[in-house]
Structures are given as C-alpha cells and as structure tokens.
Please model this.
Amino acid sequence: MEFNHKTVLLSETLEYLSINPDGVYVDGTAGGGGLSIEIAKKLSAKGKLICIDQDPDAISVCKERLRRFNNVEFVQDNFANINSAVHSLGIGSVDGVAFDIGVSSYQLDEASRGFSYSKEAKLDMRMSKSGMSAYDVVNNFNAEELKKIISKYGEERFAGRIAQAIADFRAKKPIETTTCLSDIVVGAIPCSARRTGGHPAKRTFQAIRIFVNDELGNLSQGLKGAFDLLSEGGRFVVITFHSLEDRIVKNHMKEWTTGCICPPDFPVCVCENRPKAKLICRKAVTPSEEELESNIRSRSAKLRVAEKL
Model:
C-alpha cells in the first residue's frame, strides 16, 4: 500500500515540541508516520511515542514504517478520544502532543476513498471507513439540510443553488460517484463565478467531508482532551488547513491563556481566573517560501503552539 503524504511544517513542529528524549509524546494524527518517525528518532529507550489515527490504512502503514522502534504504541481511534486512548495504555500524562488536522494526501489521491472531486469513485469520504458516508448525506438529506451543511462547512455562497441542484438530480436517480456530484455542483454555479478560486466543487466537497467525519466537533473534543493530558511544561502543536479549524484552535488557546477577567476598575481580583497555558508563538506560523515551492498543499497551513503552565 502506498501512503504518500508530505508532512507539512515538519521542522517547525519538531522545534516547537522541544522534545525531551526521555519524555512521552503523542502524534494524534499519525497518518503515514512522517512526523512520528522524526519524533521517535529523538527519543531514548526511556521515551515513548503514541501514534493515533482513525484510518485503518494509516495505522497499518505507520506500524510498518516504525517497526524498528521499540518504544512506540499504536492506537486506531479518532483523536477526539485521545484522553481515553492514552489512559488505556496506563499513561497518565504526556510531555507533548501534535495534531495535523484534515484530510491526508493519501486520502485525497486514493480514488477509492471517495474524497476527490477530480477522480471517479463511489461517494464515501469516511476517514475511519465506517459510519455514515457522503453517499448517505447527498442522497438522503433534504435540500434545506444540504444548504446548511454546504454553507456552514464550505462557506459556499451558492449553497442554496447547489443543494437544489442535488435534490433535482437525485429525484431521477441516486448520486453515486464523486464525479457525478462534482458535475452537479459545477453546473449549479454561475459561469462568472467558476473562473476564480480553484475548482468550483472544492468547497462543497470540503463541507460534506467535514460533516461526514464531524471534523469540527472532534477537533474541539480532541483539543480539550489533549490539553488535559499535558504535564506542566508540556507543548501542544496544532496544524490546521482552513479558517474554520484555525478559528477553533485559536479560541481554545485564547481560553487557556486568559488570566484575570475582572473589570479594570476592580481594586483586587475576585474572579481567581489564572492562565493555564502560554502561547509560544503570538501569531500562527506558516510555511516558508521554500516549502510552498516543494509542496503546494502546504499553502493554507497554520501552526499554533501552547505550553501548559
């Protein structure tokens, strides 16, 4: 199995994790093991790495690529369940966690997974290969529900037109493939709007994928679970690829780093609110020009780092 995925902001992630060779670290979105391998190289025999991914293909490849390391544990689960996954291994706290949010290059490039609008495949988009699929959403949700999904998660201004076009088409026959759905979306968008902003179906596919995998809900749950796991001084590095994800990460980190919230005219603090973390980078870190040239898929990546106090 070929699991090709070029890890984005790899050197920056390793730098900000500030790895202690004897520490315990979690790669919450292990994928093909690109980051996991580099973390494992920096650990001593006393250190430990936990690789988590919900995709069974990813876990299979990751196990093979890290087979030479004796201090690595593998867990097939959603990173939303990071807390219970780590505790199940008898580990109470960790020194660092890394999340690389979103769909992997392998999932996009492997036509049979049904993520891509440019490759013929059965509609699927399930990262875990289980549960509700894109086919179920596209063929069973009413037009108003589809409009809300496409608008909320894809930030698509033509969501209403696209939802109605989907409903009209499936009234005649089911929408079974990625290319069929892509053609419907393209046909629903005015010609003048197709000339800019990349492929016209990109935002709709993103929206359905996010909904199918409950990506934003899982992200919020995973962020809370990971932060709870961190020991004092532990680092949390999160990479996102679109504004919806980044906003959630930014808001969580703001909450963790917020101190006293009493009105400024209060003589003493009565809220007893204290920061739980500090930001290592005041602003999001983005890929260098060199990385952008070598990996076009890194162009929207943003990295944020917090350290637990």
Observations:
- Residues 19 and 295 are 26 Å apart (CA to CA).
- The chain has two domains: 10-105+215-308, 129-212.
- The beta strands are 24-27, 48-53, 72-76, 94-100, 230-240, 277-279, 302-308.
- Residues 10-105+215-308 form a domain with the Rossmann fold fold (CATH 3.40.50.150).
